[in-house]
Amino acid sequence: MQDKPATHSPTRPGVVLCLSGHDPSGGAGVQADIEALLALGQPSASLITCLTAQNSQRLGSMQAADPGRFREQADILLEDMHISAIKLGALGSSDIAREAANIIRQLRADQPTLPVVVDPVLVAASGGKLADDAVIEVLLEDLLPLASLATPNHSEAQQLQPPEVLLANGCQWLLLTDTDSSTGATITHQLQGPDATLHSFNLPRLPGIYHGSGCTLASACAGYLALGETVPEAVRKALDFTRRSLEQARDLGHGQRFPNRSPR
Ligand code: PLP
């Protein structure tokens, strides 16, 4: 029996905790997170928020996890491991979203600077709703105000709140990704932070449409933050990792391409 839970141990290597949905195709969701973090050499643990039926072309259905079992999994994990960063993806239901907020608050009580990356997943890569209005409400009320970094694309951002409102409400940094909103040869992702800091990241547009690019980016951000990078540097490195994963994407199904996050 230990005097203190392992969560408080400063000597144990940290684990990036991913709260994400399961995408059986492996392109997005928790498998994307685990693969990206593995490629970065970061240990990860996962709490599954929802199960989806989908492939590279369409979303069949989404079923949220049972909140009681989700909480039990969190409790048993957190009594044992030291968490170095949290990454949130699809949340499944407002009950799970509220549990996610409870987990963050619980960990932040002992680790006030624990990095939290919120990818506000609202629709599946192939289209199809992954968040209802109740989930969006918890995102706005509870989760985005706890985010060290949020990574909405333009269409997600339009369904949330204006960037200045999100930042005023507590979200520390906001990375607005541009892939879904422009058609030009260059895409510009904008990172807004405290005191109106603004960083722009220009990247050449890659041909094709990808399944899980947002998950890859957000989990790589969490991995680099866990390694102690500043938010702008973590974003720069995560964008570079994501670009390389997309450049080597494979056609594993008949629709969207699959990022190749193999360690290299
Ligand atoms: N999480 C889950 C479980 C998903 O199924 C999806 C998309 O289908 C996403 C997240 C977001 O995918 P993307 O990174 O392509 O936006």
How would you describe this structure in keywords?
binds pyridoxal-5'-phosphate; disordered N terminus; 264 residues; globular; alpha/beta; 9 strands; 36% helix
Q: Can you walk through the features of this model?
A:
With 264 residues, the chain is α/β, with parallel strands linked by helices. It has 8 helices and 9 strands. Strands 3-2-1-4-5-6-7-8-9 form a 9-stranded mixed beta sheet, sandwiched between helices. Strand 2 and strand 3 form a beta hairpin. 47% of the residues are buried. Residues 1-8 have low confidence and may be disordered.
Topology:
Elements: E1 15-22, H1 29-39, E2 44-54, E3 59-64, H2 67-78, E4 83-88, H3 94-110, E5 116-118, H4 133-143, E6 149-150, H5 154-159, H6 163-168, E7 173-176, E8 186-192, E9 198-204, H7 213-226, H8 231-247
Parallel strand pairs: 1-2, 1-4, 4-5, 5-6, 6-7
Antiparallel strand pairs: 2-3, 7-8, 8-9
This protein binds pyridoxal-5'-phosphate.
Pyridoxal-5'-phosphate (PLP) binds near residues 21, 28, 52 and 215.
The share of residues in extended strands comes to 15-25%
- Amino-to-carboxy terminus distance: 40 Å
Bound molecules: pyridoxal-5'-phosphate
Low-confidence stretches: 1-8
How much is the radius of gyration in Å?
Answer: 17 Å
SSE order, one letter for each helix or strand: EHEEHEHEHEHHEEEHH
Quickly give the structural class. Answer: alpha/beta
Largest pleated sheet: 9 strands, mixed
Strand order of the largest sheet: 3-2-1-4-5-6-7-8-9
Number of helices: 8
Tell me, briefly, the overall form.
globular
Mean pLDDT: 94
Helix percentage: 25-40%
Number of strands: 9
